Amino acid sequence: MKVIRHNDIVNIIPEEGEEITIHRETVYPNRIIVFKRLPEKGWQEIHFDKNKGTLISREEREQTLPVFRYHFDDAGIKAEVQHIFQDTAHFNGYTVEDEDAETIRIKLFRDGKELSHGIRVERINARPHNYFEEMRRDVDSLLQQEESNRKFDLFLQETYTHWTMEEKVHYHYGRILFEDRMQGGYPSGYTSPAAHYFSKWFMNTFEPYNIDSIGTLQAIAKRFDLHIEETLLREMVRHELRSDEWRTIARQLGLLDK
């Protein structure tokens, strides 16, 4: 690509065979951001000084990655939006195809305690953003989730804890089938819709309200035509879902799709 400066205006011109997109309105007021199509897959993100037309190296960009902070006093929540390079983030198996591309890390806090932490999987500078409005939606979503959690905790304390094992198994069986339908046919990575129940998550959530959580899990497994020996099940529920230890046992039981 060619950089042409004329009458204090910087223009970026693609050369033959190049595919580029040019972005002048971004969170960087003094830059022009170009995305150049790579030969294989993805795009390369390139920054230029808007006034001089000079290239801004990745090293220079690393020193000036912006951080934005917002206060939502009505919810007592603070939001932090930090620009990071995609290839420095961990996306739980997602392969980054872009080069030198930025995305954002989002954190929500209340009283100094981190409530949520997430990373966007997108070329964040490829379109304009209003981070305040986006964080407002994230905060509203968090408040709704907190209210849902309060209702669920109340259900566990006042209803679930008093059920018989048969009633608990019936509840979990119906919930698993519902979640599977909500999956909409999208591959889960498991051969059984009940696979994620046999993990530390289940014990942390339901054991305080279930005197025989292992027995309940064995009954759930039976409803889905799964046979898991008690010793193996007890070991499995000691581990977080998707941890290496959990996946080793799940693979041994044939619960992983691949």
Description:
The protein has 258 residues and is an alpha+beta fold. It folds into 3 domains: 2-60, no CATH class; 65-136, no CATH class; 199-253, no CATH class. 33% of the residues lie in helices and 24% in strands. The protein has helices at residues 58-63, 131-158, 165-182, 200-206, 213-223, 230-236, 244-252; strands at residues 2-6, 9-13, 20-23, 31-37, 43-49, 55-56, 67-72, 77-85, 102-110, 113-119. The strands form 3 sheets. A 4-stranded antiparallel sheet has the order 3-4-5-6. The protein has a 4-stranded antiparallel sheet with strand order 7-8-9-10, covered by helices on one side. It has a two-stranded antiparallel sheet with strand order 1-2. β4 and β5 (43-49) form a beta hairpin. The relative contact order is 0.08. The model has no long low-confidence stretch (mean pLDDT 93).
Please tag this protein with its features:
elongated, 33% helix, 3 domains, four-stranded antiparallel β-sheet, alpha+beta
Rg result: 25 Å
Structural class: alpha+beta
Question: What topology, given as strand order, has the largest sheet?
Answer: 3-4-5-6
Provide the helix percentage.
25-40%
The helix tally amounts to 7
Q: What's the average pLDDT? A: 93
- In terms of DSSP E residues, the strand content is 15-25%
Report the sheet with the most strands, covering strand number, pairing sense and barrel closure: 4 strands, antiparallel
Shape type: elongated
Low-confidence stretches: none
